[in-house]
């Protein structure tokens, strides 16, 4: 094993997903296609919502920022992964590694609380529809968004701060395709017990705190939907939150599997698969989930196409 006792600020080497050249090429093409769809899908979602006045509502205000977060943290991970799959140079500097870690935790933690804000929005829309315009005002939406980003910033700042105080002298080889907490902790020759507890507390508070908010909101929503007498009314109420519920389920299940467990239970294969899911696949899936299952977004696309065709005819 390559050891380095001379410094605690080494350049790391990202081992990636495989050593097979054939599999690397397949993964490069696959991840590149996924990333292109991710960029186009999320940018497309942002443009559709911005251009269609009927989508200027609290739910779509949050959805714009969800697309921005998905696009951002996919961009923080995927381009470097593509580079490592295509070249022999897999090194990443100490600063770049922890910058990537900081950005990823910031955006992922922010998304947790943004999803809980979206769940709260659906709760008010279904359970207290008459009070919805008053409660979900522009000021309330901005406060929820700001709180989400501030919480994400605190989580990432604390995590990165406690980790950069560690000495890394066992090896500079990270057995992962990006800089994450568990693979980095395994390289430290310092006592990581306190650091692991701090990270677990902040990650657990972020994931469980937001998940509890989502769960309570949807229990209340389900209770309200069951009280609706008409079948069409139940279907309409459920359709307004079905896409969000699907997105939340996929996102939280992979995060819980990866982060809410002791670092010694880190499994190279299983954790890498889970990481691929929430860093590369979910940012691609979210625009599809929120557009294909959403009649309002489909309607907005149709209106924008007709408007564009009308402008061409006028010319």
TrEMBL record:
<feature type="domain" description="G-protein coupled receptors family 1 profile">
    <location>
        <begin position="41"/>
        <end position="290"/>
    </location>
</feature>
<keyword id="KW-0716">Sensory transduction</keyword>
<comment type="similarity">
    <text>Belongs to the G-protein coupled receptor 1 family.</text>
</comment>
<feature type="transmembrane region" description="Helical">
    <location>
        <begin position="99"/>
        <end position="120"/>
    </location>
</feature>
<dbReference type="InterPro" id="IPR000725">
    <property type="entry name" value="Olfact_rcpt"/>
</dbReference>
<feature type="transmembrane region" description="Helical">
    <location>
        <begin position="197"/>
        <end position="225"/>
    </location>
</feature>
<keyword id="KW-0812">Transmembrane</keyword>
<keyword id="KW-0552">Olfaction</keyword>
<feature type="transmembrane region" description="Helical">
    <location>
        <begin position="60"/>
        <end position="79"/>
    </location>
</feature>
<dbReference type="GO" id="GO:0004984">
    <property type="term" value="F:olfactory receptor activity"/>
</dbReference>
<dbReference type="InterPro" id="IPR000276">
    <property type="entry name" value="GPCR_Rhodpsn"/>
</dbReference>
<keyword id="KW-1003">Cell membrane</keyword>
<feature type="transmembrane region" description="Helical">
    <location>
        <begin position="141"/>
        <end position="168"/>
    </location>
</feature>
<dbReference type="GO" id="GO:0004930">
    <property type="term" value="F:G protein-coupled receptor activity"/>
</dbReference>
<dbReference type="GO" id="GO:0005886">
    <property type="term" value="C:plasma membrane"/>
</dbReference>
<keyword id="KW-0472">Membrane</keyword>
<dbReference type="InterPro" id="IPR017452">
    <property type="entry name" value="GPCR_Rhodpsn_7TM"/>
</dbReference>
<feature type="transmembrane region" description="Helical">
    <location>
        <begin position="25"/>
        <end position="48"/>
    </location>
</feature>
<dbReference type="Pfam" id="PF13853">
    <property type="entry name" value="7tm_4"/>
</dbReference>
<feature type="transmembrane region" description="Helical">
    <location>
        <begin position="272"/>
        <end position="290"/>
    </location>
</feature>
<protein>
    <recommendedName>
        <fullName>Olfactory receptor</fullName>
    </recommendedName>
</protein>
<keyword id="KW-0297">G-protein coupled receptor</keyword>
<keyword id="KW-0675">Receptor</keyword>
<feature type="transmembrane region" description="Helical">
    <location>
        <begin position="237"/>
        <end position="260"/>
    </location>
</feature>
<keyword id="KW-1133">Transmembrane helix</keyword>
<keyword id="KW-0807">Transducer</keyword>
